[in-house]
Amino acid sequence: MFKPTHSRISLLAALGALALPAIACDAPVEAPLVEGEALDELATKAELGAATMAKAPVADYFIATRQDTRRCIAPLCGGHFVARVNTSVAHCADGTWQEECHMFELDLSKLGLDRSTEAKAREAFGAGDALVRGELAQVTLDELPAYPADVLVASEIWIGATGNTPEGHFSRVESTGIICVTYPCPSFSERSLNTNLSGTLDGIDLTVARGATPEQLEQGMIELSAGGLLVAGRHEVITGPAGSMNHLNATEFYVRLR
Asked: What is the model's pTM?
């Protein structure tokens, strides 16, 4: 296993070090998120359990996987297929659990976007460059009243900063405001999207995301301090005097569109 050193410090950790006084970190921290197959297996079991108990669907995070190029009458065909990130199954509009779900239309009406911004958001999501938190439902469209349409009703949309293909695990990351005199230090909290897994991070490196501009990195840091950032990335373990903790290297990060 690759054993990283602690010599690489993320821009975010450096920013926090300038802004906050150092404090000792004696309190126990949460166990880090599991990596690899163990996490996938756990998430799958959780989803299958939810399906068996027929729980009501909740707002989850989805990503578009591909266009629906099937040739049949709209709205039964057309639109995109979407997947629930971090898990192998999703609760579709027709009530079934599938690896991918059909989405004929993305409903952004709850977000209050102007037409230009909404058009950009639809384009980004259709290209796989955005994450939508929402629910899949069947509704009747005024322009196509004959058949129910599979609609993803969005409560949040997050736009990818670089357009990179996301690799690794999807998490919501927030700054804890903690700066330590030793390492590793729980400077950030991490919650896995669509699962009940959470943990702490010694640091997060957004510069790993290929092509991220200084302006995008600055916006990412602002979002981390202002309420959180969605990140796709991979962990590496930092080991030091205070024990071991995950460090997150982002392959893509997402800023919430407001």
From this structure: 0.79
